[in-house]
C-alpha cells in the first residue's frame, strides 16, 4: 500500500527536485556494485580494481544513457606542451597488471564508503555557498567566453589532513548556469579520507553535476555518469609520488575538452584520454561560461581548516607553493591559447589563510602560471 501511495505521489508532484528523484538516485548508486567482473586486480596501494566489459560499465544504467552510443576517441587534437623540467616520473593507475582489451578498470568501493550517501548526494564542497569550504582559485571572466576547453599542469602534494571528514584539493573545472541550475565538471587530485575508507593518500578524482549538486552528480563513479574508455587508468587511483616543499616536484597534466561533434566533455590526464561525460547528462553545458584552476578545502563547522596544496603561500618559487602551469583555454574562435591577465579573476575568501597569485606568461617550460597554497588553521566559516 505504501509503495502505491509513493508512486502516486511521484506522478502528482512530477518535479525534478523531489523525493522521487532522490529515490531514483539512491537506486542508481546501488547499481554501481560489480557482480561479475572479467578480472579483479589487487594493486600495490591496497586498492581492489574490477575490470568490467566496456559496453557493460555501470554508468550505462543511468536513465539518460540507456541508448547512448559509446565514443571510443575524441574528434579533436590535443595541444603539444613542453612541460616544466622539474617534472618527475610517477605511477598513476594500474602498473604491474592491466585490464584486458575491451574492459575498463573500476575501483571497488569498501563497505564503509559505499554506504556514505552524503559523498554522492548534496553534501558537496564544489557547490556554491557551502559553510566550511574555502577557496583559492583563478577563473576566466564570463565576458571572454564561451569556453570549450580548459587545461593545465598541476604539482601534486599530500596535504596533512587531521580528520577523515576534511578535504583538500587541486582542480580544473568547467561550468555554466546559476544557483541550482549550475552545470559543472571538475577534475584533479584530492585528499579525502572519508571517500576512500579512511585512506589519507592523494588520489585522482572527478566530479560532475547538472543542478549544483542538489540531486545530480557525485565524486568519481559513486553514481552513473562518466564513461570510461582507457583500460590502464582508474578513477580514484593513488599518485605514487608527491611533491615536497623545497624538493622534488611531481606533476600531472589535466584537460577537460568538449568534443565539437558529439558535445561530450572529454577528460585527459597525463597523456591519456580516460573517458568523457556525455552531453546528455547536462541541462546547460553546450559550452562553459566559466573555466578555472585552483584549490579548495573543507572542514567541519568550528574546526580548523586543513592546508591546501603544499601548505605554503605563493612566493613565485616553483617548488614551494602548489602551482598550475601551461594553462590553456579554448573560446568561440576555437583557438587554444593562454589566458591574459586582464581576462582572469583571482579569488580567495580568506587572504589570511589562503593565497592565490596568477603570474601570466612565465616563459618556455612554464607558460601561463599561477600558485596557490595555504597553511589553513582558524579560518572561520
Characteristic terms for this protein:
mainly beta, 7% helix, nine-stranded antiparallel beta sheet, 381 residues
Explain what this protein looks like in three dimensions.
This protein is mainly beta. The protein has two domains: 1-30; 34-372, no CATH class. It has three helices and 19 strands. It has helices at residues 2-13, 19-30, 111-114, and strands at 39-42, 48-53, 103-107, 133-140, 147-155, 167-176, 183-191, 203-209, 218-219, 227-228, 251-258, 265-269, 272-277, 290-298, 322-331, 336-337, 344-348, 356-361, 368-372. Strands 5, 10, 11, 12, 13, 15, 16, 18 and 19 form a nine-stranded antiparallel sheet that branches. A seven-stranded antiparallel sheet has the order 9-8-7-6-14-4-17, with no helix packed on it. A three-stranded antiparallel sheet has the order 1-2-3, with no helix packed on it. Strand 6 and strand 7 (183-191) form a beta hairpin. The termini are far apart.
User: Unreliable segments (pLDDT under 50, ≥5 consecutive)?
Assistant: 1-32, 112-122
The structure class reads mainly beta
Number of continuous helical runs: 3
Major β-sheet profile = 9 strands, antiparallel
What is the radius of gyration computed over CA atoms, rounded to a whole number of angstroms?
A: 20 Å
Q: Which bin fits the share of residues in helices?
A: under 10%
Number of strands: 19
Q: Output mean pLDDT.
A: 85
**Domain tally:** 2
Q: Which percent band covers the strand fraction? A: 25-35%
Order of helices and strands: HHEEEHEEEEEEEEEEEEEEEE
Write the layout of secondary structure elements.
Elements: H1 2-13, H2 19-30, E1 39-42, E2 48-53, E3 103-107, H3 111-114, E4 133-140, E5 147-155, E6 167-176, E7 183-191, E8 203-209, E9 218-219, E10 227-228, E11 251-258, E12 265-269, E13 272-277, E14 290-298, E15 322-331, E16 336-337, E17 344-348, E18 356-361, E19 368-372
Antiparallel strand pairs: 1-2, 2-3, 4-14, 4-17, 5-11, 5-15, 6-7, 6-14, 7-8, 8-9, 10-13, 11-12, 12-13, 15-16, 15-19, 18-19
